[in-house]
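Problem 3 from the worked examples.
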Amino acid sequence: MVKNYKALCGLLEEKVTDGNGKKAQLQDWQRYFEFERAGHKFIIKKVYDKPLPKAIHENSIYIKAIELLLMAELAKRPGNRCVLSKTQLFSMLGMINDRYYANKRNRTAKELKQYDEWQVSHFYGRANHKLSQILFSALNSMKRRCLIDYEEKMVIIEKLEMPVEDVCVKDSHSSSGDDSDGEVYQGKPQIEYLHRFATAREKKDILDVQQMVLKEMGKDKIPFNNVDEFYARVNQKLNEIYGWSYVYKEYEIIYSKTYMEQDIEIVKQEIKDKLQQSKTELNSNIIDALSKQAERLLQKNRSHEEWGCNSKYVYPYDYLEVQNDLAEFLLRIK
């Protein structure tokens, strides 16, 4: 056992670093020896005779599939622009099934009611983070190759009441032809919703409210397991202050068919027979990745408990089983 990261760097004669450099360093060490973390301590479990081969970056497994599927979708659309929400992109690419979004805010499915609310919220937090990481890795890869450009847009939804003229209802028993016979009812206003992109000033106002909510929740960043609660509270405050129904993000994707033409033709041919297979493989790889992540999180949580380190929450005994069941129910496509 080594008491902390700095001491381990001294033993290995490596430079002490932080941020992404430290993450890369810790990942590289895993090629030479197996270790566990217990608070600041490092528990060396096994030293390999030969270094393990360098791992391929995990997101590269998914990027090619997403690129092929997205280009096939863009090839079907007229023009060179589309605007989609993140959930629409997840669904279109086969990363989730229909039950994922349907149960995200309202746990209506009877299959979910058997699970502890913490387990479900924890799964949605993990899944949203992982799905977003994979999606934007692929979009950024396409952007670097000048196949697409994309931009995040903040959308504001405003409720508008459209007045309706008063309605005169004639008495059916009246013999008079006078239109004044009968009662006058006030028509109910029609509700319409205006969708529009936020201005720069409005984006700043939204950021101010988000900071306000973070402080109220005692957090310095959007909480991993309470993403839905965070945005619900933000939207509630925006409604109170500005009268907006709610806000959400969409992504404007610009693509050039002129320069994508060769790739699109390849995609059309490949996807003609393999579209569903590509979606199924992508979906399965995502579920496998989430399962492995759950194993790592459980191991980390258990090691903290075993070594008497402070842990805010001890994962339940059925954590891994429930997380895998939720992945099957909310993500697996048929």
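Problem 4, a separate protein:
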Amino acid sequence: MARGLDRPRSRPFPSGGGAGAPASPARRLTRPEGPPPAAAPSTRWFSGTGGRGGTAAPAAWVLWAVIVGLAWLGAAPGVQAAPALTVLVYHHLEDPTTSDVSCTPAQFAAQMEALQRAGFTPLTLPQIRLFLAGGLPDLPNPVAITFDDGYESLYHHALPVARRLRLPMIVFLVTSRLGRQPQFTRYLSPAQIKEMAASGWFEFGSHTHDLHTDTMRIWDAFRSTPNPLLPAVTADFAQSQARLREILGHPAIALAWPYGKYNAQTRQAARHAGFQLHFTSRPGSNEPGSDPFGIKRLPVTARDTPESVVRKARGSLFW
């Protein structure tokens, strides 16, 4: 995801919906959930790196990986692990790639074909909500395919793949940039969004209206309570919802946090704006009962192959 008007940058993961869901049932991606985020006061932000922009203690992550890996490899025979939902996040489709968080159209098509061959079940936003609530207990290999930012390349390259393979996909839009090229490439236009939604294979959510920046860094510069930035965040959510309603005919139910950063106050503002599913940059999978306001995701990068994407979708620790 872009920092301000910069192009997408590589992240360790962290990188950092919806309407038009197909009415048909889920079509034909598992693993233990990652560690919960540390408790934090309301003025702290949460992201996949832990702390205030720092990295989690290496020893703790190594210990977590060893414990989960042993549990994964040493599960007792005949014991069926609970299904877990992996949410994959893409950005730009281009050839050649000029960013680590981009991939080529050919790579993307091959990865989608590999997921389909492996028997994964891509979910729509309503199905994700139902899965997290425990309403899809027998769903085989659930996965979600998401895109952040809303680049025009999705119209040219993702839409044909979704139609051909009949795969639902979810795009989170920076609504102030629609139809514009404020940086290295153009964003989807309202007409393109309408066509993609009408196909039945694309849903759209918010990536904020005009807050695709390190909002939490600005937030932390203020020491007063309530934070003077909160009205601007609240107004931005309202603008994004209004723009999406204007294009799609209804408000969005999902939001992806820019850079995966948010805090208790901004999360509450997003809930009040009608966003019922919040997608973060915290790595891991999501089991039934997981927090719908803290959905984990895994990034797909320029280095990924069809095989590594399938491993990610299965929740493997080793990509």
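Solution to problem 4. The radius of gyration is 18 Å. The chain has one domain: 81-313.
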